[in-house]
Amino acid sequence: MTFDTLPHLSLLTLTIIRFVLVTGVALHILLTKRNTSSAIGWIGICILMPVLGTVLYVMFGINRVRRLAKKLVRGRSSHRFEDSHSSSWNRELDGQFAPLALMVGKLTSRPLVGGNTITTLHDGDGAYPHMLQAIDNAEHSVLLCSYIFRNDQIGGEFIEKLIAAQKRGVQVRVLVDGIGSGYFLSPVYHRLRRAGVPCARFMHSLLPWRMPFINLRNHRKILVADGKIGFMGGLNIGDENLVSRNPPSPVSDTHFMLEGPVVKQLAEAIAWDWSFATQETLEGDIYFKEHKSTGESVARIVTAGPDTDLEKIEYTMLQAATLARRQIRLMTPYFLPGSRLMAELGLAALRGVQVDVVIPLRSNHLPLDWACAANIAPLLDSGVRVWWVNPPFNHSKLMVVDRAWSFVGSSNLDIRSLRLNFEINLETYDVVMAETLDDFICRHRNRRLTHHDLDKRNKLIQIRDATARLFMPYL
């Protein structure tokens, strides 16, 4: 071999490496990616940039969350409910929403349970006193999960109550999101840990090889005390939610207090999250209780996330919209759904269903507002009525169909919530609750968005909005 042959050997070696990398990545994509556009995009990137594309795919293209969930899923069964097909409520519920009840039961493997009392709470002013009282009254356990948990005045009150509960022998577990409650600094996490309260940060790591997880967030807001009273919805923990105190940037929201058999499903959900983050399995009656009937509501928890629960909240909404006969009301802080939900809402409007989407006049994330403006025209074309809510910014996430079925919780109507975040919602077959929430949504229809509002934007604004729309999955 002469010196002159070395460049040719190097070129041959690089060609082989390029072929191996592209082929290996392409085969993995073909076998694992369900979304055609995503698959084509990743393959294209790897063909154009074999080395860099492979590195990017290994870091950001592989759903390691689902792989981790498969390892943990066996431990999830210790407190599962009976198979959803055996639920008496699934069998006995008849009428318009019977197909929905059956479908969600099969989808979630959770039964519908009756005998619940569900209380609607508005803003931190209405919800925080009940939540703090539940922590105060706890004798055995407190499980708390929050996307945002601030170390401000109201956050400090929660911290002190949790520390006091821990000191009197209550088993306290607190889970905060690794992004929402501070990535580099998380005062709540460190304050609780210093006081001896078990606290974990969901999907948090400063290690470079774990950076892909920062795009996967636990957006759930759950509190369960003694396994018998629960809270869930859209409310984070922070002073901005105390609207009556006129904070600088007030956030209005809707939360729910649960009592009855459905609380066990709520406790199961937060226990799974804790196990996912810490590998500690929570067991025993202090966390999971069998409840007698406390009210008239029939309800079920629906979880979603990029693990074993992928897209279950979206599928539930799609099926409910399909069954709508008269009205669909949606209230959400951010409206950037994918093509499936957009199409279903448009089709519902075209077949004569009155579809109302209620969104803030201005949210707390301007790029989301820009993207929404570029994405919403097809719904207006179909006859969907889109309404703006006047300030303060309303963070409620509510869906009501035909004033009979409700779907509430933590999930926004955007691709991040429906595909990337860990979310939790509650479906209820409770006419009284549905009518109350429907009236609440209707009261917030302050100004209707029209084609004229979209058309009067100048070209630069339209270009800005269209550009923001390209980043919908990451906003």
UniProtKB/TrEMBL annotation:
Chain ranges passing through the membrane: 6-27, 39-60
Keywords: Cell membrane, Lipid biosynthesis, Lipid metabolism, Membrane, Phospholipid biosynthesis, Phospholipid metabolism, Repeat, Secreted, Transferase, Transmembrane, Transmembrane helix
Cell location: Cell membrane; Secreted
Broad enzyme group: transferase
Residues in coiled coil: none
Keyword Isomerase: no
Pfam family, one: PLDc_N
Domain PLD phosphodiesterase: 214-241, 390-417
Topology class, membrane: Multi-pass membrane protein
Main location (coarse class): membrane
Biological role stated in the UniProt entry: Could be a virulence factor.
Name this protein carries in UniProt: Cardiolipin synthase
Organism: Acetobacter farinalis
